[in-house]
Amino acid sequence: MTKISSKLPRRLLVLGTGFLLLAGMAWSADDKDASDIDKRLDASAKVLNEIMATPDKAIPDKVMSDAKCIAVIPSMVKIAVGFGGSHGKGVATCRTENGKWSAPAPITITGGSWGLQLGGQAVDIVMVVTNENGMQHLLSSKFKLGADASAAAGPVGRDAAADTDVKMRAEVLTYSRARGIFAGIDLNGSAITQDKDETRILYGDMIPFSDILNGKVRPRESSATFLTAVRKYSGQAAEHGQLKPSAGTVTTTASR
Fold first, then answer.
1. Eight-state DSSP code of residue 57
2. 30 vs 218, which has greater pLDDT?
């Protein structure tokens, strides 16, 4: 009996140590995942700031001031050789009924052979949802550009009017930046979905896409930089007196 009892505490010690190691690894993984999302939010803000910093090569003020939703995918990469697809993670935000921008919702985009025109390197993607129909497609948490929602390469130049009526009728205007060159890009065939894993990490639970983008979720502190950039560029056209605010769009600082 004495021999058995002397071994028992040692075994418990080993088991306890193993449990602590596993728990520590889990906590570390959670911290890393949260850190990855925070970095993606900051990277998305940086993409907007850098793109809009060059007036003659930026998204037109008219497009930004009328935007229903804005999505940014920093550093999208090609995931296969030849005619393989491309995949990226990013965040989206939409205007809510009171004129404020919603908390960011994590998204993924998966594309087809159009990835070839990107030359295989990482690119930044920006998507601007232009109308209510496009917004409803985004709120559905899964849709395909060109099939469920009409999409077109967006016009470029801060002071530029929309190049064509076709582009302005598109539900989603799409842009890319690679090797420092910013231009509209055809993303037809790409699928946009809610990133459920990152939603759980960011908000602590699997919250429906529509709840986040309709403003029912309070933004986390780590979202501040990204939302500040969105507010700045979606409202600056009216602030500069270049454009009249769109109907139903509130542009006062308090409401944005």
1. G
2. 218
Structure tokens belonging to residue 239: 């602030």
Q: Give me the torsion for CA of 157, 159, 164, 167, rounded to 10°.
A: 60
Helix (H) or strand (E) holding 242: none
Identify which of 190, 181, 188, 105 has the alpha carbon closest to the alpha carbon of residue 140: 105
* Chain segment 111-127, per-residue pLDDT in tens: 755 444 445 567 899 99
User: For residues 77 and 120, what is the distance between their CA atoms, to the nearest angstrom?
Assistant: 7
**How far apart are the C-alpha atoms of 82 and 113, rounded to whole Å?**
8
Helix (H) and strand (E) counts for the chain? 7, 9
Cα dihedral 62, 64, 68, 74 sign: positive
Token digits of residue 189: 């065939």
Residues 6+ apart with CB under 8 A from 166: 152
Strands 151-153 and 172-178, sheet pairing: parallel
Token pair in block for residue 49: 């700031």
What would the pLDDT profile of 95-115 be if each residue is shown by its tens digit?
Answer: 998 889 999 999 998 875 544
Under 8 Å between Cβ of 37 and 198:
yes
Task: Look up the pTM and report it.
Answer: 0.75
183-205 pLDDT, tens digit each: 888 888 889 999 999 999 999 99
pLDDT of residue 230: 97
